[in-house]
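Section: protein folds

Sequence with per-residue tokens
===
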Amino acid sequence: MIYVRADGNTNIGMGHIMRCLSISDAISDIADASKKPVFILAKNADKEDIDCCLKIINDRGYEAITIDNDYRRMEKEIPLLANILSKDKTDVVLVDSYQVTVSYYEQLRRMAKVVCLEDMGYSYPVDLLINYNIYATDIADKYLGNEIEHKPDRVMLGVKYQPLRKEFSNVQCNTLIKDIVSDVMITTGGSDPNYATGAMLEKLTKEAAFKNIRFHVVSGPFNTNADRMKKEYKEQQNVIIYTGLSDLSELIKKCDVVITATGSTIYEVSALGIPFISFYYAENQRQGAEAFARLINVVNAGCFNLDNDAYQNMQVVDNIVNALKKCICDKEYRELLSNEERQLVDGKGAVRIAQAILELEERR
């Protein structure tokens, strides 16, 4: 069996689940039905969160097992995993979590082959470590350096391993950069604890330069501010709010510019060649935002965080406003961004990871 150990909830968003679903889809496409991954999730205090995750996983055609453990205390779940995994150590477990420890992986590896997704520069004693981020090759020494104590057997580093969904793979990209910007998408990912969307809309909808722009706002499954946003902007004719959106790619293709939190969305947008403006919430997102801004001409608007004071967050909003004005006024700039993005991301990362996992499973 191939198992996926990942969680999603209001605090950590949905990125871990969505990445692993992309890889699982690729495994299912390549292998026979017997290799279809099974998800393992920790139970959370908020039943709505776990139910949301289970629905998303089940709707994609995958079985999910819940274990009675706090997702923040992963070492305590090892005995529970021992009851699930095969006693002959023939299983493969893909782990995507920020709550892992070296000890967790050492114990899990005694029971199965272990693959981990990692983006913070921490080395772990696993069979395969994958850092799919654009900056991963710059920190290769953190995984392979001579002084590293807990080295993985194999690493796969860089944006070529970014596990995007199938709709962003093998894209025959004929992105048309229009003369006039009319549609802009805003997304904060699976959640929006800081209500960044509200802060952006407050400014964007009052700018004369944007009076003819339609703002397409994607509300993620763990957005606790969704009802507030709908109430505040229900009378705003040029603000369209989407909840439960199943096909993000079609909406992205309809838009001329995307304003997005740094995460998998920036890679999806890049695969389609749609100009974007980024911002970030946390340290693990900062590296990606800064790396993109170094490599291409995209604007990194900065960190939008509850720990910031009001001035800092409004500065991020002002940066987004100015970047959008540049996009509206400069078609050549948008054409440049589109070309640069497509050269960076080919959308085939999930297939490359799936092939590596299946090879590991065959060599067990």
About this structure: The chain has a mean pLDDT of 91.
